[in-house]
Write a structure and sequence with these properties.
2 strands; IS30 family transposase; elongated; mainly alpha; single chain; 2 domains
Length: 87
Amino acid sequence: MQDISNSIDYDRSIIWRELKRGTVPQLKTGRTMYEAHFPETAQVKYQENQKACGAKPKLDETIEFIKFAEAKILNDEWSPDDVCGFA
């Protein structure tokens, strides 16, 4: 790992994670297992992980309150402070 990372000027942890993401079990003829690295697999896994990370949008979880607040403000002429105070 260290030799590879030195030759391409990347930290060895990046190389290790790339190999871990892209290495998958394969089946040889004769039903023996071996592991092979596929850069395309590593890229797909990286992109899936990127989509899954970070804070989830809270707007979807509060849609009922948003609809309630919208109805009170538009129909009943409540102020935003009134809505928050009631909630």
